[in-house]
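I keep forgetting this: the sequence line spells out the residues, with the fold written below as integer tokens. I include a record here:
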Amino acid sequence: MAAAHRTLYVSDLDGTLLLPDGTLGTLTVDVVNELVSRGGLFTYATARSPFRAALLTRPLSLQLPLITYGGAVIANPVSGEPIATATPPSGAVTALIDSAESRDLQPLLFLQHAGRDRLCWIDGPLNWGTNDFLERRADDPRLMPLTGWSEVSLEQVFYMSIIGPLTELEGCRSELATELAACDALISEDVYVPGQFILDVTSSAGTKAVALRRVAADVQADEIVCFGDNINDLGMFAVADRAYAVANAVAEVRQAATAVIGGNADQGVARWLEENAGMMGK
């Protein structure tokens, strides 16, 4: 008797699985949990940390490794502890810090320190975007302002973000083409703050695409189906057998998709799963 076909479903969170207000819709919770209860393979891939993603996805009964920090960290679905972490060269971290600070931009470094996941920056004046980013995370236990970068080990950095004007971020990335050769550097617009742009940098081994390949191999998936809306989902789309863009996705993602489905406001991912993942008889 032939083994059952194993399809791995992977969804981005913000702008895709989550509603526009950053929460999970009732239909999404019901459909995903029903899929998992039937033995279906479902996980998410997000730029969020395991901590912040877990706050939003607690209603989901997920059992597979979670792709977090844009693929830099694969996390345990129960404890949130790292299963695998990819770190960029320390020289790339230093170069990015220097370039950002020369442009009056404030780097945000995500790293391991004293056995804990930390979000670090140099305490002092911040631009509006960076201050807004941190204020929205005021209760986040990862926050760790520094007086100088020497207080932490830059070799423990696994994710870097810089928030600022698009032209400055593009200039920063362009001038560091050599230093960031072993990195993945993506600029995207904040889903929740139109006009606010973020440069996110990880190791080239710490992307959604690389992490997705690993998770798919670990769960022995025969097929990958993914869902996304933003630039950092394009690598995942390239790896997947089928890739679906929600209706609110940016143009580049819609163009790269197998098809465009309902938007996140309409819980498009859940509706697609309900109709196409053997869920109609639930």
In short: The domain at 90-203 is CATH 3.30.1240.10 (Hypothetical Protein, Haloacid Dehalogenase-like Hydrolase; Chain: A; domain 2). The first helix runs from residue 13 to 17.
